[in-house]
Amino acid sequence: MATADHIKAVAERVKRDREHGRDLVVVVSAMGKTTDRLLRLAGEVSREPSPREIDQLLATGEEQSVALLAMALHDRDIGAVSLTGPQAGMRIEGKYGSGVISEIRPERVHSLLAEKQVVIVAGFQGMNSLGDVMTLGRGGSDTTAVAFAAALGAERCEIYTDVDGVYSADPRIVPKARRILHISFEEMAEMSWRGAKVMHPRAVELGALHGVEIHVRSSFHDDAGTTITGGKNLERLETRETVAGIVHDYDVARITLNAIKTGPGTLSKIFKPLAEKGISVDVIVESGAGGGAADIAFTVRKADFDETLRIAGEVAESLGGVVEGEMDLGKVSVIGTGMLNRPGYAARMFDSLGEAGIPIRLVSTSEIQVTCVIASDKVEEAVRRLHRDFELEETNV
Questions:
Q1: Burial state string for 275-307 with b = 16 or more CB within 10 A and e = fewer than 16
Q2: Which residue among 113, 132, 154 closes a domain?
Q3: Residues 149 and 253 occupy one common structural domain
């Protein structure tokens, strides 16, 4: 939806689907860099714009898109009606700028579909209990699309983006990366959380919760893309490849509280004030320092580094320790549900990075992922090495 030509291309795709007799609800984002431009304008007119007014402002980006797409469809003799999030029945609660969906009241959408209209819904937005516009924050349009698919009992939800689907690694780093034809909700959510930008994890998790099959496809051609679905629909359950992909993330900073006194409630003293500030913590490692003291390290997004360092510093001082931080870090993760009952994948990852001379700062593991925090300037080399050593280039993922 970046330009008028893109909107026309979307209209042509919608027209083709409509001519096949499908009932369609189309969720759209703002055009191009509209959201960034609006945020800049807010900063130019106000030193501290209120979160409520920011949401009022940002919602206009998607409202432009839905109206323009409806106009383009009218030019193609396709009946279409544009709706804002509140008009479509999207109800949201929580904080301005990061709301969560409480319910969808789809009566108006059902009524328009019964009239054979294409319903175009503004993503990223809804209405709170006060009647105010509230936005969903990151991944809001994908999440809106999956939520409406669930509420309407849709056959599937198609996400159109600027890539061909989900790959076994970032093709810009690994040119031989393979497109993944089918992937489980669990793998896709983990890949998204660990750095893959194709879909936001909250949209994937919503699809898993309500059983909505999601297709990730390119906006520029008709290839099948990647299907995200439940395990019950995946073929070759035990013969499929163990590792789905290698993902990376540069948005990583480390905080370490050194030699703090530990006891019941210590972790709460550290992480509760961070949660109250809305700061998400990822990898957490605790190691004994002796004498009833310990070192606790964890990672946060770089944008949260300064605030986290301040809060952690106050906690560390109260517990007789000191705090330190590091910014130039990244993460690389090996993801795959097939790892669950097959040991040795962590060791294989450590061997691969060790042979490449890449030091590991922190490690996090679960049933379907192993994540290593490393220096940011080693991330690309690590992705290429792991993709090769896990033989993803030779496999039909």
A1: eeeebebbbebeeebeeeebbbbbbbeeebbee
A2: 154
A3: no
